[in-house]
Amino acid sequence: MNGDGVELAAVLGLAAAVFVGASTQRISGMGFALVSSPFLVMVLGPHEGVMLVNLLGACSSLLIFAQVFRQVEYKKVLILLIPAMLMTLPGAWVATALDGPLLSVIISIMVILALASSFMIRNLPMGQSKSLAVGAGAVSGFMSVTAGVSGPAIAGYAIASRWPQAQFAISVQLYFLVLSLTSLAAKGGMPQLHWQQWAGCFAAMVVGILLGNFLAPKIPAKYSRAFVVLIAFSGAVSLMVNGFMAL
């Protein structure tokens, strides 16, 4: 295959991953990084791929947030976001102090346990407490820096607190927007892509969000919530497998 063919394949690969990730994010409220990250890393490599996930994840959340900002539950998001931002500091220290693969395995186990326990406490009074929201935000922020996965802990909180899926999918965009920008700033750089790759990524993102806008109202909340749980568990299992393979 010649250089033009390789370049075209790279553009199409990136665009396809971004399209699926953006539409998933709009429909279920989360999943851009979990869906698109493996493919972006495969095409660009770990460093550039993760930075592109952070950047495009922020852009995707921003585009969705701009459409629905009047419906966002700001107080609820703020309770989650403040501890999440604070926990990025110790998370950054732990990420440098502990072995990466071992940390991935530990965190993935924590995520699976958190998701499982969220089903057990959803009918208890603590499921509606602010302390649970603070804890979920703290765990999510810690995981965002240490493992690049912030969604599963928030998904667990949404289940436990019985946060209606439609409101969750809208409100959580502000949360992911701020955390994605924070992660990108912590890395101190920007991904280096050809202009055709940038164009393909952003075009695919817009089309994916438009498709999500069309599909989101047509998909029953129980299926969207089930999809969120499936994405969260899949992300945790993938993180665990990658950690074991790297050990």
From TrEMBL:
Per the record, membrane topology reads: Multi-pass membrane protein
* Coiled-coil regions listed in the entry: none
TM segments?
Answer: 40-65, 77-96, 102-121, 133-160, 198-217, 223-245
> Which of UniProt's keywords are assigned here?
Cell membrane, Membrane, Transmembrane, Transmembrane helix, Transport
**Signal peptide location:** none
| Protein localization | Cell membrane
Q: What is this protein called?
A: Probable membrane transporter protein
The record lists the organism as: Glutamicibacter arilaitensis (strain DSM 16368 / CIP 108037 / IAM 15318 / JCM 13566 / NCIMB 14258 / Re117) (Arthrobacter arilaitensis)
To which protein family does this belong? Belongs to the 4-toluene sulfonate uptake permease (TSUP) (TC 2.A.102) family.
Note the InterPro entries from the entry: TM_pro_TauE-like, TSUP
Under Pfam families, the record lists: TauE
- The organism's superkingdom is given as Bacteria
